[in-house]
Amino acid sequence: EEVVKLAKDAERPVQFIFAGKAHPADESGKRFIQKIAHLAKHSELQGHLVFIENYDIQIGRMLVGGCDVWLNNPRRPLEASGTSGMKTAAHGGLNCSIMDGWWREVYDGENGFSIGDDSHPDNLEEQDRVDSENLFRVLSEEVIPTFYNRDATGLPRQWIRKMRHAMATVTPKYNTWRMVQDYSRKYYLGD
Questions:
Q1: Beta bridge partners of 72
Q2: Domains in the chain, please, with CATH?
Q3: Cα separation of 161 and 177, whole Å?
Q4: Which are the contacts of 71, defined by CB distance < 8 A and separation ≥ 6?
Q5: Which of 86, 172, 175, 186 is the most core-located residue (most Cβ within 10 A)?
Q6: pLDDT tens across 17-48, in order?
């Protein structure tokens, strides 16, 4: 219900785009992808929920370079390094993520959006429930209003500030140049 309400809002519509592949041994992951693909084609979300099949590196590049918001909602503490979200900031995209992994290290309140706080519920069902509530809250109260709030010239000034801040804070910390320099200094030069 919440997804339909957000996606089909006549004044502030939202489109969710999913892509990816499950590991051949990940039965629950494969079922999840099948469910998303089915909903994209056979539900009232058609046109607002899209599943891109045959995901590969080229599709990943287009998604990273063309999204307004990169949604990342792994189960804590399993997010090691969401490199797609890191690359999104270089293209002016904003991250909306669970406070885990790399996002926990770089999020400062202005360079994207946090799905909830840094708490860790005791069981998976409770974590899923809390994360779901927090996801819909941040989308409806922060992400969507910020994106659609335009000034007299039609520009989303607060969104643009967040984009610029994300580019200034995320990109310098998460890039190949910095990584190679760190590895060279720490492991080859012994600093």
A1: 97
A2: 56-188 (3.40.50.2000)
A3: 25
A4: 16, 96, 97
A5: 86
A6: 999 888 899 998 899 999 999 999 988 999 99
**Of 73-87, 101-115, 150-164, which range is least confident?**
73-87
Return the SS3 of 57: helix
Find where tokens 């590049």 sit: 61
| Token output for 104 | 């926990």
Quote the pLDDT of residue 121: 76
Q: To which H or E segment does residue 5 belong?
A: helix 2-7
Type of residue found at 47: G
Q: How far apart are CA 79 and CA 68, in angstroms?
A: 21
What does the DSSP assignment read for 71-116?
A: EE-PPTT--S--HHHHHHHHTT-EEEEES-HHHHHH--SSSEEEES
Residues 6+ apart with CB under 8 A from 127: 75, 76, 120, 121
Q: Exposure of 174 by Cβ count < 10 A (0-12 exposed, 13-18 middle, 19+ buried)? A: buried
